[in-house]
Design a protein that fits this description.
single chain; TIM Barrel; eight-stranded parallel barrel; 11 helices; 9 strands
């Protein structure tokens, strides 16, 4: 059933779990996520990221995402991830997204606040919710920021800034930087759990972990206990799909007759990966 980010995060708060939020640039991703969420009877968030606009135009993807969410047997929100363009954000709201993330983390604090307030104003017109970010997340979705030249401590979210940001913008969820990064990890991330606990004590809205793929199970659980209620996940799910395609081709000596066979193999492997993630986020044995 189609719902809002706030509604699924209320469920997460009540159960003391985190909701998985998965970038889904194609049907295979969507089916892998929703089928798994239905299997474990947990809410989930389907996300669209403008970074993939060239291969998955939002005008085509939005109606499909909304339809998949509406027909799901569990609560599903449709979310715009990492959007720094207010016009794009407005267009996605018009297309039916039930929540949006405005990412002004590369801007000055004042510019981030100003633009986030505009995003909140837009979203309220459509009954949608808003996530925003303060602090810089390393990796591919960091836009043009040269994060390699920034000290880690300067990228992390300052708890007092987070409190002020939430109060000024009236957002619904806060993405905080505390040691994760987008993409694949070359070394295990060192997460600053004390920082998350401090931020949680200062703000009264759900906290979001970006760069959730590749974090070990123990750290996921600890982050959830510290207050994380939404975990963004894609890279390792996407890689699992590639592994599924490779296995399918190897099994048939490269002689696969139809594309749907490859798509099914990718979906199966992605579903296995999503299942591990969802089980951990909802702390099911």
């Amino acid at each position: 059933m189609l719902t809002t980010m706030n509604e699924v995060l209320k469920i997460a708060e009540a159960r003391n779990i985190a909701v998985g939020a998965f970038d889904t640039p194609n049907l295979e991703n969507m089916f892998a996520v929703v089928k798994t969420a239905e299997k474990y009877n947990v809410p989930v968030i389907l996300m669209y990221i403008p970074l993939l606009e060239d291969v998955a135009p939002v005008e085509f993807m939005a109606p499909v995402m909304v339809a998949v969410a509406r027909n799901a047997k569990v609560p599903v929100a449709v979310h715009l991830d990492h959007c720094s363009d207010l016009e794009c954000l407005k267009r996605c709201l018009e297309l039916g997204f039930t929540s949006v993330m405005y990412d002004g983390s590369e801007l000055s604090y004042e510019e981030n606040v100003r633009n986030t307030k505009i995003a909140v104003e837009y979203a309220r017109r459509y009954g949608a919710d808003v996530e925003a970010e303060i602090g810089i997340m390393g990796g591919r979705e960091a836009g043009g920021a040269n994060v390699g030249s920034i000290k880690p401590e300067d990228m992390y979210t300052d708890p007092e800034d987070a409190k002020r940001f939430v109060e000024e913008t009236k957002i619904d969820a806060l993405a905080a930087s505390f040691g994760t990064a987008h993409g694949f990890y070359t070394v295990a991330p060192k997460l600053d759990f004390a920082r998350i606990e401090k931020i949680k004590s200062l703000v009264k809205i759900p906290l979001v972990m970006h760069g959730g793929s590749g974090v070990n199970a123990e750290d996921y659980v600890k982050a959830i206990h510290c207050g994380i209620r939404k975990i963004n996940y894609y890279s390792y799910m996407g890689k699992a799909g590639v592994d599924g395609v490779k296995s399918c081709l190897e099994k048939h000596n490269g002689e696969v007759a139809f594309y749907h066979e490859i798509a099914a193999a990718a979906t199966e492997k992605m579903q296995e990966n999503v299942e591990k993630a969802i089980r951990t986020f909802s702390m099911q044995s």
